[in-house]
Design brief:
Layout: E1 2-7, H1 15-29, E2 33-38, E3 51-53, H2 62-73, H3 80-104, E4 108-112, H4 121-134, E5 138-142, H5 158-167, E6 176-180, H6 183-193, E7 198-199, H7 220-223, E8 231-235, H8 245-254, E9 260-264, H9 275-286, E10 293-295, E11 305-306, E12 312-313, H10 316-322, E13 325-328, H11 337-344, E14 349-352, H12 358-362, E15 370-372, H13 379-389, H14 392-409, H15 412-422
Parallel strand pairs: 1-2, 1-4, 2-3, 4-5, 5-6, 6-7, 8-9, 8-13, 9-10, 13-14, 14-15
Antiparallel strand pairs: 11-12
Length: 425
């Protein structure tokens, strides 16, 4: 089949984009031809002749930013102009989708979160308009929803509330199949709208090398200030409050061996006004952990490269290769890719039972971890972590068990089986 993907941006490091690339890889392996319509291509993910750029679809387009500001952040006194522009932009997008489908002989549309989260109102509405006119099969890959974001998508205008309620997500029909990334989302979707979705967990390629030590990454620890004999735990996440990084800092403080150190790889770019980052820095200073907690966001990015002064930039795979174990004390995740990455990397992971996904979709499956509740470190958890960090054979037993289980549950082969069902119309 010719499968047409509609997505706000692709080729970047955001979770929706990265998971979409995995779907593309597996769909092409299955023999399908994939076409992409997007407002931003950070890099090519299919052949250029199958990529169509439509600027209005970008989350950073003037149209999208104007709509979001007036619908949710800085509403005017009267919504008439807002509603007119949304409708006008949506009709424009629907027309472009219609032409794109005809030109490329698209058999099925895959809407990547654009029909689930109302972060681009006219795109979601435009997809709805196009689908209703064309009567074309649609798969919607629903990563997250408005109700999961607190008050973010509450508007003072009842017309906007109605638009969000009626268009996000797309309503069920024989021609629309929904895929959620967690059991909690599947349950909520059914309770709210009677939609029976297929759970498609986020996956990793368990057949490709990952987190291997090599000539490039052998000096990573030394480059970020470690000494021989140090025991590195890595927190391989962005610096945002829900990641629970303060708990990882507290863990380091409670471990008796001063050689145990924490590396936080992510940046604070998504931390509003850097308030959480400042709290973490203050916590480190208060506990006198300056030599045991390292923030390495300038040297560790998604891919290898060079800094402006010629020093190495290491990849996430390099970071996992350099870790003895990983911390992952998030309070909330839509799924939790960093957990599966640690499993793939064959690294022990110390985890909080994050809501609403971890225990239901991951923890209850039999993975061996040190798990805490509500980010409360207890003496037993600290002792268990200490034992794992200092026992190589125990780490090997844990990680081999977790790797085999991860391959059974979160591999590309699992994704292929799910896609066969989803694209069966």
């Amino acid at each position: 089949m010719n499968i047409g993907i509609i997505i706000g941006r692709i080729g970047d490091v955001d979770g929706v984009g990265l998971e979409t690339e995995k779907w593309i890889h597996v769909l092409e392996q299955m023999g399908h031809d994939v076409y992409i319509l997007s407002g931003m291509f950070k890099r090519s993910v299919v052949s250029p002749d199958r990529q169509t750029y439509l600027s209005i679809l970008s989350f950073f387009s003037p149209e999208c930013e104007w709509e979001q500001n007036r619908a949710f952040f800085y509403p005017p006194d009267d919504p008439d102009e807002l509603l007119f522009r949304i409708d006008n932009n949506a009709h424009r997008i629907a027309t472009e989708i219609f032409g794109w489908v005809l030109r490329n002989r698209i058999d099925v549309i895959l809407s990547e979160n654009a029909s689930a989260l109302p972060c681009h109102l006219s795109m979601g509405l435009g997809i709805k308009m196009a689908v209703e006119k064309m009567d074309i099969p649609v798969v919607t890959h629903d990563h997250d929803f408005a109700w999961e974001r607190g008050s973010r998508y509450h508007s003072p205008f009842h017309e906007i509330g109605k638009l969000v309620s009626e268009s996000f997500p797309l309503r069920p029909s024989d021609q629309i199949h929904h895929a959620t990334i967690s059991s909690a989302a599947k349950i909520e979707l059914n309770n709210r709208y009677g939609i029976d979705a297929e759970i498609v967990p986020n996956v990793m390629d368990f057949e490709q090398p990952f987190a291997h030590n090599d000539d490039y990454n052998h000096d990573l620890l030394r480059e970020i200030g470690f000494e021989d004999g140090d025991i590195p735990m890595f927190q391989i996440t962005r610096i945002v409050e829900r990641k629970g990084i303060e708990t990882a800092i507290d863990l380091v403080d409670r471990l008796p061996d001063d050689r145990v150190k924490l590396v936080v790889t992510g940046s604070a770019a998504d931390d509003e006004r850097k308030g959480y980052f400042k709290q973490l820095m203050e916590r480190v200073a208060e506990r006198d952990l300056g030599d045991r907690v390292h923030f390495a966001y300038r040297r560790i990015l998604s891919h290898r490269g060079k800094t402006f002064d010629g020093r190495k930039i290491y990849s996430l795979s390099d970071a996992y290769a350099s870790a003895v174990a990983c911390t992952y004390f998030s309070t909330y995740e839509g799924f939790g890719n960093a957990f599966v990455e640690a499993v793939l990397a064959r690294r022990p992971v110390f985890v909080n039972n994050y809501k609403p996904v971890y225990w239901l979709d991951i923890g209850s499956k039999g993975f061996k971890t040190v798990m805490i509740e509500d980010n409360q470190l207890n003496d037993q958890a600290v002792q268990d972590v200490d034992a794992i960090l200092h026992d190589e054979e125990l780490r090997r037993d844990i990680t081999e068990h977790n790797f085999k289980l991860g391959r059974e549950l979160f591999s590309f082969q699992v994704l292929e089986r799910k896609l066969v069902s989803l694209f069966d119309f």
